[in-house]
C-alpha cells in the first residue's frame, strides 16, 4: 500500500519574500530555479543579485542583501541549478553577507549549506538559518508497481531544463480552470519552493525512486488528477535513472513530451545529440507500459522562447501536423494549448 504524502501546502514553510541569487551564472538554463520562482511566484520575490561574472537576469531589480531586507525579503534563495549542485567558492562571501544583512539562506543544491565551514560559522554568528530544500522524506519504501486509483499526468523531456516544470504548472492551472480536482506534484527544488512541498527526486537513493514517486502521487478519487513534474530525460547519460524511476513509480495515464527546438545537443554533454520527439514518445511508452499498460502521449510542449510570435505559431502548427498530435507552447497559450489540454483529458 502507498502511504499518503499529506498536504503539500503544509509540507514546508520557507521564509518569504525571497531575494534570488544568481551566482556567477552565464547560461540561463542553469538559473532555472531563479526563473521558475520569478515566473510562478513573482509575488514572493523582491529582487535578484549575482557575483562577478554573472550575465543572467530574471528581470527583477538588482538589490544588495541590505536593500532586499529593507524591501521585505527574509531569505536569499540560491536560484542556480548547476551541474553537480555545488556551491561556488566565489559565492561564499555574498552568502555570508546576506546572513549578516538578516536573510536566511535557502538552497536546492545537492551540497548541504552547513557543509561549507564559512557558511556554518556565519549562521552560528548571525543566528540565521541554513535551509536545504533538497532533502527527501525518511523511510521511503521501494516501489510496488501496484496500480493506484486516480489519474496521473507526467511531463517528460528530450533533455533537462527545457520546460517540464513550466508545462506541468500550466497544465495544472488549466485543469483547475476547467473545474477539475487536481494537484501539482513537485519533484525538484524549484517546484517544491513554488508548491510548498514535494519530493526532490534526484536526492532519493536510486533503489527508492519508484517508491518515492508512488508516495508522491498516492491513491486518489477516480476523477482526481495528479500533474507530476518530470525530471531529467530517459536519453540523458547522466540523469536517466531518476527519469525512469519517476516514470515507473508515477504510472502516468498520460504524458506530455517537452522539447526545446533550438537545442541540438544534450545540455552540458555536447557530445550527445538530442533525441527526436518520436524517439521519446516510443521509449516512454515502452518503458512506462511496464507499470501502466494504458499509458499514452497527450501531446507535445515546445519551448519557443527564443522565437518571435509568428515563427513560433508556424512551428507549432507544422509539428502538430507532422506528429499527428497537439503541439503547443504553454506559456504562449491560445488555441494550441487548449487543444493540448483537451487531448490530455480525452
TrEMBL record:
Which Pfam families does the protein's record reference?
DUF1611 (PF07755), DUF1611_N (PF17396)
Q: Which InterPro entries match?
A: DgcN-like, DgcN-like_C, DgcN-like_N, P-loop_NTPase
Chain ranges of the D-glutamate N-acetyltransferase-like C-terminal domain: 142-334
| Source superkingdom | Bacteria
Q: Which residues form a coiled coil?
A: none
| All residue ranges annotated as the D-glutamate N-acetyltransferase-like N-terminal domain in the record | 52-136
Q: Cross-referenced PANTHER family, in alphabetical order?
A: DUF1611 DOMAIN-CONTAINING PROTEIN, GLL3100 PROTEIN
Under what name is this protein listed? Uncharacterized conserved protein, NAD-dependent epimerase/dehydratase family
Q: What is the lineage of its organism?
A: Bacteria, Pseudomonadati, Pseudomonadota, Alphaproteobacteria, Sphingomonadales
